[in-house]
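quick one, 475 residues, struct below
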Amino acid sequence: MRILLTGTNGYIGMRLLPLLLDLGHDVLCCVRDKNRLPVDEEIRNKITIVEIDFLKEPDLTILPVNIDVAYYLIHSMSSSTTDFDKKEEVSALNFIKYIEKTTIQQVIYLSGIVNEKNLSKHLWSRKNVENILYRGKYNLTVLRSGIIVGSGSSSFEIIRDLCEKLPVMITPKWVNTKTQPIAIRDVLIFMTGVLGNKKCYNQSFDVSGPDILSYKEMLYLYAEVRRLKLFIFTIPVMTPKLSSYWLYFVTSTSYKLALNLVDSMRIPVIAKDKHLQEILDITPMNYAKALELAFIKIEQNQVVSSWKDSAISGRFENSIQKYVSVPKRGCFKDYKKTKITNIEKAVEKIWAIGGENGWYYGNWVWKIRGYIDKFFGGVGLRRGRTHLDKISSGDALDFWRVLVADKNNKRLLLFAEMKIPGEAWLEFNIDKDNILHQTATFRPKGVWGRLYWYSMIPFHFFIFSGMIKKIAALS
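---
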């Protein structure tokens, strides 16, 4: 089949793509920016990439006519706390306009469980998108999922942050809300199982694991699997806004996502039927098993995708391409260079920079900078990195975004997503003479930008000098 995969570079899309290719399908990957699709050359040669922003007026000449099935994996919850529902509505309406000129037979939409009368804004938006998609001239299959548990999923990473960092928790009352989590592996089995299955046409199904748990029980079970001591005390005085700040500062989530998550966490998310399990003969795994599998992937360094790699900076709403060329005029630069004796080792260390590996020099200073950034509403250092030793264009890397990760030409270019009065780039490049060039570029915005740069000069001198020396010494 020829399949249109929207939201390809999202958490689900990145995991679904290789499965569809393994099944022998011809996949059109639909993204806003092809430079943010973190796949290797082998996969890139097997797919067709189409650039579409579903928030913009449709260009109906972009998509080919012969498409059999489309996966609709578009959401905007992490991009806004106010109008994400409007964005999701516009995206769904424009999606229908795009595909109504094609030969499409089925659309598969991954939604959330919406069985309560009073829904959060997020779940109401998911239901609204479902209603819009039912207007199209195709067969719609809706999978209403519980919270997804897997290496790199937002739910798993938030629970992981809380339990690993806080042995004693003072929690808001929403931790008593019941939910029905499902393993990412089972979600993918359901998503491929309904593909082209006529028994699933024009129906909406709940998909979930077997366990109905409160968020508190999920935290305790995580601690049990990890053999951690955990004590949780619930108080009723934490408002949704305070709860959002609590999640934001303790975990790796962004504030926008935290606020929307807290709004949804007060609503029970429990499946009402197991009809799809019977049709596809699937028995989902329990929560404890899902946790164990997630840690196997982490320990084997096989995390396929992470929600943290989604572009949360407003600068990347359209494209990262315009930031790939580092500006030369009106900028401050900190430039260092050194001779490299072992090129392979140097590239290996550059590609492993950040996250748990740190920045090779003055890590405590980097951590303080991360805390400051977090305090002022930035991303901080808690996103880390998806892989220990692999980097792709579009990945999040602490408070940087990877713009270029060209291992063949030995060039890594990062763009800062921290809160700063201007724009910043950090580049590593090894030339043909085995010289490592390390360049920090800052384009200030107004007087505050210039004052910021001058105030950071003493720190830059030691940090950047120490960093390039450590990379060279390790090589």
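The CA atoms of residues 28 and 48 lie 5 Å apart.
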